[in-house]
Write a structure and sequence with these properties.
With 526 residues, the chain is an all-alpha fold. It has 24 helices and no strands.
Length: 526
């Protein structure tokens, strides 16, 4: 048995070396967001406000679907936990993506087979990926628990909440490992694991709105059943660990019986003849990116639909808290609902930016896999090959943002009884197109001029999210906020944005993208 895991320690060190920046960002950002969320609640709420919020949330099915059962909301700890559960998806994503990256992606690239030619056991990659993921999840959980306890929240409840988040990362790491055994491609494995995550999240939401029975089929339900700050139960965490162990054993059993590089499900053979569209660069780019675009579009639309239904009750959620009302009034004289919608539109713009960055990085992925060189061996020029992916990315980003804003307008319009909210919110979302284009152009520039650093493209989204979501709470200086292109857009639809900043952002996007394309034409491919 030990031979099956030979070399696990060395692979753990290798994974930590390769992911030292990626995992540091994941852990650091998640812990900072959780701590900031708690600090905001402690600063803005009083005990009577908490009682008002508890009564409102307990009768709001949308809030329960988003954040789980309304337990202990009359206390600061319960209110913080209710807010933190919305970040649980990010912990789950970290777990499954890390495992798939160090298992199926390594097999797809051929590096796993190369390493197994040395003294590396069959299960060493899986064990190393799980150990790294578990370590990162525990780091998030313990880091968050420590910072919450330092803010005078109950230590036991903070520890239960932290370990519940850690159990989520580990559980979805196990699911990611099983998905990596099913398919032959890393993207398909990630997509399958994300689909399972979405299904379990919906099951938890439906269960929490109903009798609660369906929540027990979901890792999210097990984590929330721990009831941090509202009972502090440990045994649901044991259930989570036990079920994750079973999933890992199933994954290892499948891995034992399959060939290296193969999956449990063999891919279907393609049609005998390709369509004429695949003979063009734009047709090929669309074929490669359409599944990713569909997933982001559906996710953005669902997020918009969910948040729009909450906006109408923004006034009830704030209650009689004068500090929150004064703070919102200082931002603008607009209504609370419009200020809430402005925050959601920023969220949706960041979602669309995430899609755009991933779509542009497909150029680098095709190049690294050698497929780009094959395409360029034909009559296809570099500009046509890369430009097609950029065009699909730009069009897709507009689609994701427009669909999400449309979903927001539909649900808010239904709640407010005003169909005119749909075109109003879609039109307001267009203000985010110039900064989105600049973020996309920066990605093109990195891929064209510094392909080895392509992962740094995600720093654009991290900075935009940090400044946009935490800038006011941390009272960041103006020059720091100006770093993010999204800071130059007003809080639409509560405020109107001057045209000049948007024109400048659009011009910078064109220049940056052009520099990236020139770099791509001049450098070596491969």
């Amino acid at each position: 048995m030990s031979a099956r895991f030979a070399g696990t320690g060395a692979l753990v060190r290798l994974a930590l070396r390769r992911d030292r920046v990626r995992l540091t960002l994941w852990v650091g950002i998640l812990v900072a967001l959780i701590a900031w969320s708690a600090q905001s609640i402690l600063a803005l709420y009083t005990e009577p406000d908490l009682a008002t919020f508890a009564r409102t949330a307990d009768a709001n099915a949308t809030l329960i679907a988003l954040s789980g059962p309304a337990r202990g909301l009359e206390t600061f700890g319960g209110r913080v936990a209710f807010e933190v559960w919305q970040m649980a998806i990010a912990v789950a994503l970290m777990g499954l993506l890390t495992v798939v990256r160090h298992t199926r992606h390594e097999e797809e690239a051929g590096r796993a087979e190369l390493l197994r030619a040395a003294e590396v056991g069959r299960h060493a990659h899986s064990a190393a990926a799980l150990l790294v993921t578990t370590g990162a999840s525990v780091a998030v959980g313990l880091g968050a628990a420590a910072l919450l306890a330092l803010q005078d929240l109950p230590a036991t409840g903070s520890l239960v909440l932290g370990l519940a988040l850690a159990s989520l990362g580990t559980s979805f790491g196990a699911i990611g490992l099983l998905a990596a055994q099913v398919t032959e491609h890393g993207r398909a494995a990630s997509g399958l694991a994300v689909a399972v995550m979405g299904a379990t999240y919906v099951a938890r939401a439906v269960g929490d709105i109903g009798s609660g029975a369906l929540s027990w089929v979901s890792p999210f339900g097990w984590a929330q059943a721990a009831r941090p700050y509202a009972g502090d139960r440990w045994w649901p965490l044991i259930v989570s660990v036990a079920v994750s162990g079973v999933v890992v054993l199933v994954a290892l059993a499948v891995e034992e019986r399959r060939d290296v590089g193969a999956g449990l499900v063999r891919p279907r053979p393609g049609p005998p003849a390709a369509s004429s569209a695949l003979g063009t660069p734009i047709g090929m780019a669309w074929r490669l990116q359409r599944s990713t675009l569909l997933a982001w579009t559906v996710g953005g639309a669902l997020l918009g639909l969910a948040m729009g239904s909450v906006a109408e009750s923004a006034d009830d959620l704030v209650g009689d808290n004068e500090e929150i009302r004064d703070y919102l009034a200082s931002v603008s004289g607009a209504s609370l609902a419009d200020l809430f919608l402005a925050t959601i539109l920023l969220y949706l713009a960041l979602v669309a930016t995430g899609y755009a960055l991933q779509a542009v990085l497909r150029v680098r992925a095709e190049e690294a896999a050698g497929r780009g060189e094959t395409v360029l061996a034909t009559a296809t020029s570099r500009a046509a090959w890369a430009g097609s992916h950029v065009i699909v990315a730009a069009g897709g980003a507009v689609c994701v943002l427009g669909t999400a804003a449309g979903g927001l307008g539909i649900s808010y319009g239904l709640a407010a009884g005003d169909a005119g909210e749909i075109p109003r919110l879609v039109a307001a979302a267009t203000a985010y197109l110039p900064p989105l284009a600049l973020a996309l152009a920066l990605a093109v520039a990195v891929v064209g001029l510094w392909p080895q650093g392509s992962v740094s493209v995600w720093a654009v989204l991290v900075v935009a999210a940090f400044v946009g979501l935490l800038g006011d709470g941390l009272d960041l200086p103006g020059w720091v906020r100006d770093v993010s292109p999204f800071s130059h857009v007003a809080a639409v639809p509560a405020e109107s944005t001057p045209a000049l900043p948007l024109v400048v952002l659009g011009f910078l996007a064109l220049v940056t993208a052009a520099a990236g394309m020139v770099g791509l034409r001049r450098r070596d491919i491969g």
